[in-house]
Amino acid sequence: MLEFEEYKGKLNAAKPTLEVLRGALKLEAAQKEIEELEAASEREGFWNDVANSQKVQKRLKVLKTKVEGYQKLCSAWDDLYALCEMALEENDDSMLEELKEGFEDFSEKAESMRLSTLLTGEYDANNAILTFHAGAGGTEAQDWASMLYRMYNMWAERHGYKVKVMDYLDGDEAGLKSATIMIEGENAYGFLRSEHGVHRLVRVSPFDAAGRRHTSFAAVEVMPEISADDTEIELRDEDIEMQVYRSSGAGGQKVNKTSSAVRLIHKPTGIVVSSQVERSHFQNLENCKNMLRARLAEIKEREHLEKISDIKGVQMKIEWGSQIRSYVFMPYQLVKDLRTEYETGAIQSVMDGDLDGFINAFLSMRAAS
C-alpha cells in the first residue's frame, strides 16, 4: 500500500498549488463579473441590441468555463484523495490503476490551467488565424504544408476548439500551396502563437521513385482574430487595393468555381491576403479583412511597434536556417524545437496534434525571460 501513501503525499503537495491557481485565475473577480453580466442580460430591452447581447453572452461563456474548469479540478482532487483513504482503510490495491490515471489527468489539467494564467498578451484570449505556405520544392513541400494543416486541425479537435476554413489553394499534384483557417476558442491565439515560423521536415519522399531522403520547408503564420470595432487596427479604404478573381486549384469541395474569390493588398505594408472558399464575394471580402487585421495586429505586437503605420512589409523566409522546429522521420524519429530545446521521439503523436509539450515549453520559457 506504499504507493497509495505516495500518491496521498503528492496530492497534499498539490493542494497549495490549487490555492495559488485560484488567485492567479482571479476567480472572485470572474464570479462577480458573471453576476453583473447575468443581471444585465435580464434587463428589459437587453436582447434588442443584438451585437451587444452576443458580446455579453460570449464573455459569460468564457468566464463560466474558467470558473467551472477550476471547480472540476478541485472536485477531482477531492475524489482522488478520498480514493487514497478508502484504499488504505480497506487495504485494497485494486484501485491503484484508477488512481494513477486520475492523478495523471489531474496533473495535466492543473498544468494547462496554470499555463493559461501566463497568457497576458493583449490578444492572447482571442481566436487564432493560421496561414500555411508551402516552401520551394513543389509537390514535396506542398505535401508537408498539408501535413501541418492536418496537425493543427487535430490539435484544435483535441482541445474542443472549432475550426473554420477561410482560404484553401490546392497543390499541383498533392498537398496544398496555401491555406488559412480560424481556430475559435478561448486563448487559442495565446497557446498557438508559439507555432508561428518555419517548420522543417526530413523524410524519405513518397514522391521519389528512387527513395531518396528529402528536406522540405513550410511556414505557419499565427495571428489573433481582431474584431472590426477594434480601433487599434483601422483599415482605411484608400490603403487597400481589392482584386476579384476566379477560384483556382484542384478544387473539390474546398473552393468555389465562380469569380467571387477576393484578394486584398495593403498598400502601406505590401501585405497580401486572399479568400476563395466562400460562395459569396462579400463573405470572402469579410474573410480577407479579418485576415488583414489579424496580420497587422500580429506584426505590431511581435515587433513591439507603437502604431500600425510603423509596420513595414516583411516576408517570412521559408528556407534553411530560418526554421523554429525540425521534424525528422529518417534515419531516426525526432521532433525538436530549436528555441526551447524541447524534443520528443513520438513523432506520429505530434503529427496527430499532440503539441502541448512544445506549447508549454514555449510559454514557460517566455514567462521565465
Describe this structure in words.
This protein folds into two domains: 115 residues, Methane Monooxygenase Hydroxylase, Chain G, domain 1; 232 residues, Alpha-Beta Plaits (2-Layer Sandwich). The protein is 45% helix and 20% strand. It contains nine helices and eleven strands. The strands form two sheets. Strands 2-3-1-5-4-9-10-11 form an eight-stranded mixed β-sheet, with helices on both faces. Strands 6-7-8 form a three-stranded antiparallel β-sheet, covered by helices on one side. It is globular and about 70 Å long. About 1% of the residues have low confidence.
| Shape label | globular
Overall SS class: alpha+beta
In total, the number of domains comes to 2
Say what oligomer this is.
single chain
Calculate Rg over CA atoms. Answer: 24 Å
CATH architecture of the largest domain: 2-Layer Sandwich
